[in-house]
Amino acid sequence: MKRILILLYVSMGIFTMAIGQELLSVRHAVEIALENNYDIRLSQNELLAAKENKTYGNAGMLPNATADLTQNNSIQNATQLQNSGVERSLNNARNNNLTYGINIGWTIFDGFGMFARYEKLQELEKQGDLQLKRTILATVGDVITVYYTIVEQQNLLSALDSSILISKERLRTAENRFSIGKAAKLEVLNVQVNLNEDISARLRQVETVKNLKTMLNGILARDLDVDFIIDTNVGIDESLVYGDLLERADQFNPDLQNIILHKKLAELDLKDIKSGRYPTVRLNGGYNFSRTESSLGFVAQSNARGLTYGLTATVNIFDGLNQRRNERIAKIQIDNAALQIEQQRLAVQTGLKTAYETYLTNIELVKLEEKNEDIARQNLDITLAKYTIGSISAVEFRDAQENFINAISRFNAAQLQAKLSEIQLKELVGQIDF
């Protein structure tokens, strides 16, 4: 009956604390983070910028048109000797020239460099998408880690609440026994010290839970004072298979995919550099108006307007062997990217293997600590009954009480570590699900 009353008091306390607070599930927490988290929003903006940059004009495929106006004026002391032998002189001779119009230029061939640049812009967009996915994975991993750390510490807080109620019951029993002469004052004092110790531990635990909630609110980028209750159920996915994880990591690990993309970009850089070996052909055209005035000369004033067009072709004959040097450096960058791919693939495989072994161990520890918690709970029930009738000392009961709290703490810690191992594996794979 006493145990039922204790559980009832704890349940009522938790219910009272929950009034006015939102129930925040791990899924809801992730959804809030995906919407509010600053790192994710920054990565989204970088992806939008990469999409805006992916245009034909940015790659140099489209013509460019300009409206130009040029006004030149001069005042000179001029002397002219004409073919007829007549010499003409004029001080402060004014010359004015005005030209304005629209000019168009279009590079129609640059050794296929424009196509390499456009493809590079496409790959940079993919890189922005990969970076966004990596940021999302890291943020989701942080949310889940902090969330289940709160679960662990909240469960421990509930256990401390139960321990305080038990200590209060012990104190009442000790005082009754002292009042009827069956116990010494020392026993009452020892029980009071134990109760104060439990209350002190609870205060520290409340602080820990509050700080963790503040940390989670920070990741969710919302008001840090928002209070909430959590779902204390920890569901651990025990169906993960190493071979399947390894195969998916090779396809979806964002760090590995990013390095593979770097190699593609290096290949496109080489293609762009090689375009320098080919001629560049550019079409030019425009429609211009011009007006010229001269104080000295055969023509005092002239006006002209009309269409201009033409073609310009240039080819690099010799540039100090820079073309050759740039190509060699680009090839080295491609080789380095290939080595980095193998290096990252090995790092992913190593991290995956060690994380999987830890995952298996933690699952076994959860099963073991769950049994230990049940044993410690039964031991506490028996000890409480014996202590009530005075067949064991307060010290023996305190040992059983501490063993119970420690068993709960180890079980919660084992659950947390198993969950974190699961999340680490899924983050390495690049696919965190619920």
TrEMBL record:
Keywords: Cell outer membrane, Membrane, Transmembrane, Transmembrane beta strand, Transport. Its main location: membrane. One of its GO terms (cellular component) is efflux pump complex. InterPro entries: OMP_efflux, TolC-like. Signal peptide: none annotated. One of its GO terms (molecular function) is porin activity. Gene3D superfamilies: Outer membrane efflux proteins (OEP). It comes from the Bacteria. It is found in: Cell outer membrane. SUPFAM superfamilies: Outer membrane efflux proteins (OEP) (SSF56954). Belongs to the outer membrane factor (OMF) (TC 1.B.17) family. PANTHER family: OUTER MEMBRANE PROTEIN TOLC (PTHR30026:SF20). This is TolC family protein.
